[in-house]
Design brief:
By secondary structure, the protein is mainly α. The protein is built from 8 helices and 2 strands; from the N terminus they run ααβααβαααα.
């Protein structure tokens, strides 16, 4: 059993078509996250006015930028204030440094001989980066904002 399947991630989830980006998303959202540099550059190439290039460049970032937002100790912590469930922390522990060093998240080739290892590496990279992103968003939430429950 691969690490990905042990947490319920199916390979088919990586074969869905990507969501479409619209240049108006740059005005609609405070931050726009791309999985790789090519996607980020493609998004920014849609900005027609060079005067706004720098402004929008600051809003578009790579998901893996957030891999370094927290220390390994914080991401791998277990217990009441942990960022991740214990199962994910133990899955990440052996390859944490490798997962944090990824810049561009690539879609694993599911037809290759090492597809299960490639899928596991991608999943681990996504978990680390998303944990950092969630922590960043939590830290960035203004204290003077009303209580908000995204599940309601």
């Amino acid at each position: 059993m691969t690490a990905a399947s042990s947490i319920g991630v199916q390979a088919q989830q990586f074969t869905r078509p990507p969501e479409l980006f619209d240049v108006t998303d740059l005005d609609r959202y405070d931050i726009v996250v791309a999985l790789d540099s090519t996607v980020r550059d493609t998004m920014l190439s849609q900005v027609q006015d060079p005067a706004y290039q720098e402004y929008y460049s600051a809003k578009v970032c790579l998901l893996t930028t957030f891999s370094m937002y927290e220390t390994d100790m914080t991401v791998l912590a277990t217990g009441g204030t942990a960022l991740l469930p214990r199962q994910l922390s133990s899955l990440l522990r052996p390859n944490m440094a490798k997962s944090k060093s990824v810049v561009d998240v690539s879609v694993p080739c599911l037809s290759s001989a090492d597809s299960s290892q490639a899928l596991d590496a991608t999943i681990q990279t996504l978990i680390v980066a998303n944990a950092g992103l969630v922590k960043y968003l939590s830290d960035a939430y203004p204290e003077n904002m009303p209580e908000y429950d995204p599940m309601e």
